[in-house]
Amino acid sequence: MTLLDLDPIRARFPALAAQQDVVHTCAPGGTQILDSALDAMRDTAIAANANAGAPFAASQAVELVVTRARERLGVLLGSQPESIVFGPNMTTLAFHLSHALDEVLATGGEIVCTRLDHDANVAPWRELAARTDATIRWIDITSDGSIDSSTIAEAITDRTRLVTFPLASNALGSIVDHAEIVRAARAVGALTIMDAVHGAPHLAIDRLGWGIDVIFCSPYKFFGPHAGVMAADPALLARLTPDRVRPSPDTGPDRWQTGTASFEAIAGCGAAAQYLLDVGMAAIAAHERSLTALVLDGLAERPGWRLHGHDDPEWRTPTFSITHERLSPGDVTASLAESGVNAYAGHYYAVEPMDRLGLLEEGGATRLGFVHYHGPADVERVLAALDLAHEGSDRSS
After folding, report:
1. What angle do CA 203, 207, 209 make, to 5 degrees?
2. Beta-carbon neighbour count of residue 195 at 10 Å?
3. The CA-based dihedral angle spanning residues 68, 218, 320, 311, taken in that order and rounded to the nearest 10 degrees
4. Is the model's pTM score more than 0.90?
5. Distance, CA of 50 to CA of 261 (rounded, Å)
6. N or C: which end of the chain has fewer CB within 10 A?
7. What percent of the chain is helix, strand and coil (3-state, nearest 5)?
8. Helices 263-279 and 35-47, axial angle in degrees (round to 10)
């Protein structure tokens, strides 16, 4: 078992110290915030509470905040600093990019999405298709929530202009073998867009090495503040025409940032990125694989529970959608809350996979999500809470 030393890691998260009676398995919906991210936000609000572009100290300080954050996120995402665009959240950035892609789809064509995606990586492209009379085609998933590779060649054709896919599923934890999708897209000259929101706290990312045009992520899913980040090929950013006001910059990533940015949030994003680089994504992934194996083994031993998703720790994040034979997902999360386990029930905006697996009309599933600040004791506590929920269902049946 490969595990991190949790004491110094957990000490970096004030909420974990303040809420020691709670296990935050709600992490896929948003992780707890890192101390240095909080400090960076506070320091920026005090010393750099200004807009950019002026000669006085606070304005110069805010420009340095943005530059440093772009450098750190560039390293984290395997992209250039000039590729980094900040926004309020991933969904807003995706819709923003979709408007600029009208010109790419102006002559028609096809957009390819997957049945594994969160709706933030579906709805913008559906609307783009509606505006441009493009056709949406789908890469399907298997019954265990993995990409059905046999449908890639069927979906991507010489009419494909854009291919979107996730790094990992926020609902099922499935990790996508994206190389085959990228190769097929490149073969027909299509743009590639990856939603790495769920994958970013768990997996190393390399936009340039993977040959992907655009990657989205959300720092509040990797220990930073509520914000969105787009890492995009600088040549693509320069070629497209974004919605913008006339005085905004004519070049560079600032051209894509509408209105005054949240500089405090950008500072926090940079601090979160640096933290992940310091801990190391390989160490985080190894730790989480150990947790994943413990959860999978624990679920397999317990009657009444069904895991939706495959059971290979190498190809999933420590995010688990489960249902109970008698309890509704809402009843499960209510029982877990009584045991001090925070979790969500529903579809988590992952409408496509939930519908494809027949869960959407049944209230979705209960999602348990762990990150690297969790340890075996957290897993044991969650499994014990599931036992209590099951026992309670026995008494009420």
Report:
1. 95
2. 29
3. -60
4. yes
5. 11
6. C
7. 45, 15, 35
8. 150
